[in-house]
Amino acid sequence: MDGLGFAWRQFASFGRIVCDRGLVYLEGMKLRFEQRGADRLGQALGSGKGCILLSAHVGNWELAGRLLSRYAPGVPVNLVKVENEDPRERAIVDAVMGDQAPAVIDPRDSIAASLAIREALDRGEVVGFLGDRAHGQQPTAAVSFFGSPARMPVGPFQVAQMTGAPILRCFMMRLGHAHYRLEVDRAITVPRPQSRRARRMAVEAACAEWAARLESQLRRFPFQWHNFYRYWD
Question: Which of 11, 29, 85, 116 is most buried, most CB within 10 Å of its CB?
Answer without folding.
Answer: 116
